[in-house]
Amino acid sequence: MELGEQFGVSRTAVREAVKTLTAKGMLLPRPRIGTRVMPRSSWNFLDKELLSWWLTEDNFEEVVSHFLVMRSSLEPQACFLAAANGTAGQKAQLNTLMEEMIALKRHFQRERWIEVDMAWHEHIYEMSGNPFLSSFASLFHSVYHTYFTSITQNEVVKLDLHQAIVDAILNSDAPGALLACQALLNAPHHVNQ
C-alpha cells in the first residue's frame, strides 16, 4: 500500500510532504533504494517548523535544556555587541522596554510581561548589529515564548538583573553588559511545564 492510499491523499501531497521533510534533513529519498528516515543527528534543528514540532510537552525539558546552552553561549555576546554597536535610537527603545517592565512590577499582567520580556531580549539581539544573532532571536521566538511562559509566575522575573544589562548597554559598557547578562543567565529559574 502506498502512502497516498494509506492516508487518503494525492501523490502530489505525498511528494510535497517528502520534499518538505527532506529539506529538514528528516528523510533521504534515493532512486531505486527508496526513502529512508534519517537519524535525529541529521535533522535541521535550525528550522522553525521542525522546532515547533519538537517543542512538545513530552520534549519540553530536553528542548529547553539545549536552548539554554545555546542561549548562554550567544546572549552575553549579543549584549556585549549591543553596548558597543547600539544606536541612540535603539538604546532609547531598550530603555522604553525597561520602563514598561518596571511599570509591570507595579501592575503585573503575566501575558504582557512575557511579551515585553521577549521583545526586550529580541531587541538586544537586533542591537548587536550581527545578522546571525538577529536571526537566532527570530528563529527561537517560539522557544523563547514557551520558556518565558514556563518561568513567569505572578511577578516580574529578575528585574534588577535586566536593569543591570540596560545600564551597561546605555553606558556603552560592553564588558559590563556581557557580565550582567551572564549574571541573569546564571540566576536560578524555576521552570514549570
UniProtKB/TrEMBL annotation:
Show the SMART domains listed in the entry.
FCD (SM00895)
PROSITE patterns from the UniProt entry: HTH_GNTR
Q: What is the protein's name according to its record?
A: GntR family transcriptional regulator
Q: Which residue range or ranges hold the HTH gntR-type domain? A: 1-40
The molecular function terms of the Gene Ontology recorded here are: DNA binding; DNA-binding transcription factor activity
Superkingdom field: Bacteria
Key words, A-Z: DNA-binding, Transcription, Transcription regulation
Write down the InterPro entries for this protein, in alphabetical order: GntR_C, TF_FadR/GntR_C, Tscrpt_reg_HTH_GntR, WH-like_DNA-bd_sf, WH_DNA-bd_sf
